[in-house]
Each structure stands twice: as structure tokens, then as C-alpha cells.
Amino acid sequence: MAYLDRPTPQRTGPWAHSTLGAVVHNALRALFDVPPARRTPERAAALLSEHWQDAGFADAEQAATYRARAKRWVAEYVEHHDVTSDPVGLERWVSAPVNPEPGQPASMIIEGRADRIDQRGGELVIVDYKTGRRAPDEYEARSSQALAMYAVAAERTLRRPCTKVELHHLPSGTVAEATHTPESLRRHLRRAEETAEDVRLATDTLEAGGDGDALFPARPERRCSWCDFRPSCEAGQAAGAAAKPWELLAP
């Protein structure tokens, strides 16, 4: 619906949890633009206020409540983490042609924008900020295909080893980390290649006149309540009531 349908189907309006996540990301990114000595909890909280937006919140009172919480999150994050070292990348775009099988010609290009890339002891570390309702664990960090792809692409782009990935959950202060092996990264690449091939085949068939509903069937489930394309999907609308724009905020 985002990439193939034209005109692009109607989407929902802004979501408060997305606004909150974007504001926290922007504040932490801006923090590293100031000299290390000024990267204080107070400065982090001030940057949060500077980047604040109210889109998606129920009202001004709810927005103010979450602004205060988010200021506390970033202040505590800076207080309990070493932010004096400059990252190798902030919102860094990394890209690489790859093949899951060593020594074979590239079969796909993986790319994405990593929240933060640190260098520790000569190796790169992928850092991803989270502001959701649930604190992540090691399994989530290890099983995240996006983080694995960032690690592979960062190593190829920046020419330094990269096997460690971390999820930093601001509301709880949790850091979930995982260290990949060459085989675990290959497994993620194989999965990505299988998905890419399925999408490529379906896209080509659609362009040749195939039935879009058969090639890309709706799979209604609970998440349809907060899908961005819900206004344009009858199956999603039938799956359940629409979520309020603020219902996915961390409690």
C-alpha cells in the first residue's frame, strides 16, 4: 500500500506514541551536537522541550504529562550512561550489497538508518532507542532483523567489525544487548533474501496484471486497530474498533 498502490491510499493521522518516540530521538541526537562537557541531564531535558510536539495526544494536559515524563527519561538516561564519547554515526544511513553465502555475488542491497553507532574497543555497536510500552529483552535484540542488517551494513560501510546490537528503552532504563556470530548474521540475511524474493515475485506479477488482493492478501489481526492504512482497508476495519491516537503510549 505504501510502495505499489497509486494513488497512495489514505492514511490515519498522527499517533502520540510516534510523536513521543521522534521527539526523544531528536533530543538525544541533538545532545551529541553540543560539547561533551555540556551533555548534562539538564541540557538533555531542555533539548526535549525544544523539540517537543503535541501531535496525536488527547489534549494539552496529556501532552504536558508526557512532555514531563520524557524530560525525566532523557535526563535519567544521560545521568546513567556515558555520553562523553562522540558516536561514529547519528541517524547514520548505512548500505551494503550482500549475499548470505560467503564468496558469492551480491544478491540484494540492505540499507537503513541507525539511531546511533558507537565505537568501543575498536568495534562498532548499533544502538537503537525505544520508548514503547514494554521493555525489550536480549531475545528481542538478538531476533531483530533490522538491528542485524544495521550491523552488517555498518561493518561494510565503515570498515570496522560490528557484531553487538543494543536496545535502549528510555521509560524503564533497560538496555537489552546481543552479540551476533557470523552464523546468526547469515541466518538474518537468508531470511531477508527469502522475503525480498517473495516481494520481488509478487511485485512483478502485479505489474504483469496479477490480482493485487491475491498477491498481497489482507491478514486481519489485533494490530489492524492502529494500522496507518486502516482508513483504506475494509478487512482491517472489520477486524476491530479503531485505536485512539494516544492508546499506545507507554503507561
Summarize the SSE layout with pairings.
Layout: H1 16-31, H2 41-51, H3 60-80, E1 89-98, E2 108-120, E3 123-130, H4 138-143, H5 145-158, E4 162-169, E5 174-179, H6 182-207, H7 212-215, H8 234-239
Parallel strand pairs: 3-4
Antiparallel strand pairs: 1-2, 2-3, 4-5
How confident is the prediction overall: mean pLDDT?
96
Distance between the termini: 31 Å
Could you list the spans in which at least 5 consecutive residues all have pLDDT below 50?
Answer: none
| Gross geometry | flat
Number of helices: 8
Helix content: 40-55%
Fraction in beta strands:
15-25%
What's the story with the biggest beta sheet? 5 strands, mixed
Number of E-type strands: 5
Question: Could you say what the CATH topology of one domain is called?
Answer: Lambda Exonuclease, Chain A
* Largest sheet strand order: 1-2-3-4-5
CATH architecture of one domain: Alpha-Beta Complex
Structural class: alpha+beta
Order of helices and strands: HHHEEEHHEEHHH
Radius of gyration: 20 Å
The CATH C-level name of one domain is Alpha Beta
Keywords: ATP-binding, DNA damage, DNA repair, Helicase, Hydrolase, Nucleotide-binding
Protein name: PD-(D/E)XK endonuclease-like domain-containing protein
Organism: Amycolatopsis deserti
Pfam family, one: PDDEXK_1
